[in-house]
Amino acid sequence: MSTANANPSMASLLRNRFIQTIMTAGLFIQVGIWIRNFAILLFVTEKTDGDALAVSLISVAEFAPIFIFSFIGGTFADRWRPKRTMIWCDLLSAISIFVILIALLFSTWKAVFLATFVSAILSQFSQPSGMKLFKVHVPGEQMQAGMSLFQTMIAVFMVIGPVVGTFVFQQFGIYVSMALVGLAFLLSALVLTSLPSDRTEDQVGSKASLWNEMKQGFRYVWSRKVLVILGGVFMTAGLGIGLIHPLGIFLVTERLGMEESYLQWLLAAHGAAMTIGGGMAMVFSNRVAPHILLMLGMASTAIGVFVMGWSTIFWLTLLAEFIIGLFMPSLHIGINTIIMNNTEEAFVGRVNGILTPLFMGSMVITMSLAGLLKEQFSLLMIYQASAALFVIGIIVMLPMFRLLQPAKAKA
Fold first, then answer.
1. Each residue's pLDDT tens digit, 200-216
2. What CA–CA distance (Å, rounded) separates 282 from 156?
3. Which option is the CATH number for 208-411: 1.20.1250.20, 3.10.100.10, 3.40.50.720, 1.10.3720.10?
4. pLDDT per residue over 93-135, tens digit each?
5. CA-to-CA dists, residue 139 to 13, 134, 338, 341, 405, angstroms
6. Could you tell me which residues come within 8 angstroms of residue 38 by beta carbon, excluding any fewer than 6 positions away?
7. What Å distances lie between residue 201 and 78, 205, 217, CA to CA?
8. Mapping DSSP to helix (H, G, I), strand (E, B) and coil, where does residue 37 land?
9. Confidence of residue 285 (pLDDT cuts 50, 70, 90)
10. Which homologous superfamily does the CATH classification assign to the domain defined by 1-195?
11. Residue 327: pLDDT over 80
12. Which of 73, 86, 96, 124 is least surrounded, with the fewest CB atoms within 10 Å of its CB?
């Protein structure tokens, strides 16, 4: 695609009714999620006097459903009509929030953990349905630009979300915060009603048993070499991220010799860079192949993690964090576009349901080992090991260039 027609392509994408609707609904969902996450975090911290176990249970409530329900949700997303599924998921999320709000008023504060848990379960049904609708309503040549647009919105909320969530809780307390979360989900469901109607043939799996459809999903992924390779990339990236994810605070205090509060500047640099990177990816998305975007994301993360582990200078560590954030949208956009371009509509949910747990499972394995490894090895060695895993991921994905070359040539 030439430079001349890249901007008109983005303009036509923004005029797409589906994109307008899904972005507006996504805006409400992001507001709801960030208010929920920070209101619950601050509320639990306040109620338990900063008990580490209670705070960690919030993460368990958020991530556990991904393991348990991701593949099941993806399978049902392939069976059910996607628009209807998304609307019902948002409605049920809103209802669960209001039920939990009543429990807070008349029963126990511990009900807040259910708010995250229930929403996380429902998102495992809603998210793959959204991917299916992308496949149906966004032309193939605009798919990458559409993913870039969505990723940019998520990157923006990574910067402003914590601020909004903290402000709402501190100003209005847990009851108003949860009411606003429920309202945000209701508004998202209302917006989604304006999506184009589901086609009757979207209810693809109704005659086959759930177990058979799950087996078909695994066979489908195994038969597509690109998806198998992508699964390997997911695993190495998950292992690499999990290895260092819990250790950021020690990077600041031990490697840099600074106070814990300086961690917020690294996080702010990462979020700001993601916003910039998402915008850049949106502008150049039609000129760069998705596997190149994925390669850029993996390579920049490997370099950034290597430098962060080696550096003892704050500005250099900050720069490395910025570089990782700058190319992180490229990594996500590349992955999502490769999945969408190489998956038939009928299998989108199951493919997502298989690949996502590979990443999350790998990340949790190394996250659980990170503390033990830190007692045995230096931070420098752990960060270099993480960088090496991303390099292995790059090596794993090299055959993808050959596999995707014929498709590029035909285009």
1. 554 444 456 767 877 88
2. 13
3. 1.20.1250.20
4. 999 899 888 888 877 777 888 888 888 888 888 888 888 888 7
5. 9, 9, 14, 11, 20
6. 161, 162, 164, 165, 166, 168, 169
7. 11, 10, 19
8. helix
9. low
10. MFS general substrate transporter like domains (1.20.1250.20)
11. yes
12. 96
Residues whose CB is less than 8 angstroms from the CB of residue 379 and which lie 6 or more positions away in sequence, other chains included:
247, 250, 251, 254, 255, 309
pLDDT at position 50 is 67
End-to-end CA distance of the chain: give it in Å, rounded: 10
Residue 121: C-alpha distances to residues 68, 75, 230, 242, 296 (Å): 9, 14, 24, 22, 32
If you write DSSP's letter for every residue of 246-300 in order, what string do you get? Answer: GGHHHIIIIIS---GGGHHHHHHHHHHHHHHHHHHHHHHGGGS-HHHHHHHHHHH
| CATH 1.20.1250.20 location in the chain | 1-195, 208-411
Nearest to 80 by CA among 127, 125, 136: 125
Complete DSSP assignment for 145-184: HHHHHHHHHHHHHHHHHHHHHHHHHHHHHHHHHHHHHHHH
Residue 320, token pair as written in the block: 């490395």
**Dist CA 40 CA 38 (whole Å):** 5
Find the DSSP H helices in 49-111.
Answer: 52-79, 82-106
Distance of CA 131 to the CA centre of its chain: 13
Contact in structure between 316 and 186 (CB atoms under 8 Å): no
